[in-house]
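Here's what a typical entry looks like (Transpeptidase family protein):
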Amino acid sequence: MNIKRSIVLRVRIVFILIALVTTAIPLRIAKIQFEQGDKWREKAQTINFQYREVPATRGNIYAGDGSLLATSLPFYRVALDPTMSKNSTFEEGIDSLAQLLSGFYKDKSAKAYKRMITDARLDKKRYIVLNRRQIGYQDMQKMSQWPIFREGRLGGGVLFEKVEKRYRPFNSLASRTVGFINEDEYGAGIEYSFNNYLKGKDGKALFQRLAGGSWKPVFDAEDIKPEDGYDVITTLDVNIQDVAETALLRQLEARDAAFGSVIVMEVKTGKIKAIANLQKNKSGRGYGENYNFAIGDQGNTEPGSTFKLFSMLTLLEENKISLDEKVDTGNGAQRFYNQIMRDAKNGGYGTLTIREAFEKSSNVAISKLVDEHFGSSPSKFMGYLEKVGLNEPFDFQLAGEGKPFFKKPGEKDWYGTSLPWISIGYESKLNPIHTLALYNAVANDGKMVKPYLVQAIVKGNTIEKEYGTEIIRKQIASEKTIKQLQELLEGVVVRGTAKNISDAEYSIAGKTGTAQKLENGQYTKRYYTSFAGYFPADRPKYSMIVVIDSPSGFAAYGGDVSAPVFKEIADKIYALDLELNPNSQAQIASAQPNAALPYVRAGKAEEIHQIFEKLGIKASPTQPEEWVKVVANDNKIDWRINESDPNTVPDVSGLPLRDALFILENKGIRVNYQGKGLVKSQSLIPGSKLEPNTTINLELG
């Protein structure tokens, strides 16, 4: 009996507890809903809805003539909220939409697309990606007119999610100078150095979190629109850049060199017109622009004989020497303490004038003169580095500029042999851009200007920041010294180590450089070759430096390796620049067959159209991208299309050299030419089959 009573009591207690819990649950629900509802609704909102960043459109990078070097192109990922459209709209359009999607993407059947969208709608899925493939702007515009999609974001549920990609119209041209930037905002070149301007200001928009962790944008009045980035306008000239890269690559391949650099700069302004850097790929095949040796720290190296210009400046400025004074170089070997300085020529040069010593690049002569006149006061020699402006970096516009290195008298690494070796470009480090600045100053009658690459930061028609010519030193030496240095540099090309690039058409001034490579503390038989100078020597407009590291083969000196690249680039610039080569215009005028009309034989239709429109001359219509031959017909211009099959030799007769080079080199044809003016004849017959590695000879007149 007691057991039965105990069991009944326990059952009643359990029943009462269950009844209490059952009563408490609705009370708790009511309390949460009515008393704490706002609190929990707000928490749910923060979990499922979130303001997220909307990236700004990155600014463009332009060449000096307005050519586009880098831009951000919009691409789109197509997604859909299948629950947004009305039943009537969905039923009427789903078959056609599925058919269009299948035909466009070509990855699924129309039935598969219809099933995917219909199932998502039945399951009340608010977000599905229709295809991971990104589409362009034109395709996005076309898709927006498709069934269901044409109802827009709210009526049809279509979402064109913008994804921007960086695009370079000129592909790898100036790729390291233009540079890159990654997601962590680390990179190189203009993209990295001017990122604060280019990146713009990101906006914010409300997004809804969906099943699977994806986020869908939601319209909200508090969205903050992104501010697009500023555009960067450089000083680069795409034609000169192309010429520089082509000439450098050709020599690197011919000499199987490790790397090479070219910088072309305007003498008066300091505007850089081209920077080319090519390095052998890790595979050992081909060359790529992987590092900016012209500017960066890895390009900081012993300059070799191009530094002799500085040594001559100090000697002349101190009135220690005259150019016709004699110096005995003996048998080409000179002992300085425990080391022997040698000339490149076996047996030496004997007795030379100082002018001849510089032209022949005698190590013995230059080091002997510097040691004789500055050996007791090396600080005075080294002090000229500050006077000239070579002791510190230029604070160049690209990040990563190498810092010049020079030993200092009195420090523990200064030896009795330091001064003679520094005087010929050893035991010191300079970037190509620093060496070029010195030569540019001599060309500029002693005024050293700071090299610069970016001339403006703009947005639309508004200039945010502008950069111009900056003078580093008003005068690096006296007028008399500068004139003597100019004479010496011209003599190197006329009679000295660079006489192989002397040209009767225009004059070049410059200096060769050859430095033995220091590896594991020992100088080797591998060389760092260079040529720095300017042209035309009598009215300098451009300065240039060419460096080529570790060329193979015989005669691996600056005059044999780097100077020919300088000459090739200078030739093409001279041919393209009407300011330097005014005779070409005079020739065209003298050959003009019809005085009533301008004489234009051939060219690109768009450019010729612009000229004729300015002059008010009627011309028959054609497509702007076509190359045409021009025929004068009374007071009107007629032309015929100058068609060119990609597998045949094009007809470039009548074209200016600039256009001929563009057409031929873009087909992989190597070009040799002689004369000036327009293309008078070509060695390969137009329309004949184009063979690999073809070379064509052009006669201009």
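The chain is about 35% helix and 25% strand.

More examples are in the samples folder.
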